[in-house]
Amino acid sequence: MADLAVEYGDPSAPDSITFAFEQLNDLPPAYGVLRAASSGQYVGPLEYALPTGESRIALVYVIEVREAGAYTYEDVKAQLTSQAQQQKQIEQLIAALRARTYIDIRM
Q: What pTM value is reported for the model?
């Protein structure tokens, strides 16, 4: 399988993807069979089309299926980090714009 992946694989395709069960609807229709998959199961081959019209085939290995519930810190750590960085960039941009802006109020 590794030799086939090297020869025919798409280097731009991710090696792994993590998503919530609700996001299965956002995936190509061929991935609908993942709703019934369980941990440690191989699913596929699944054929799907890219937005460019090219056809792709995927073999999916389900690493983990977890019950619904509250998110853990590890689940949202990357998202929180990204949001904090974006907020800091926005604050820096606003500070730079304020420093360049001159307002003269006369009465």
A: 0.49
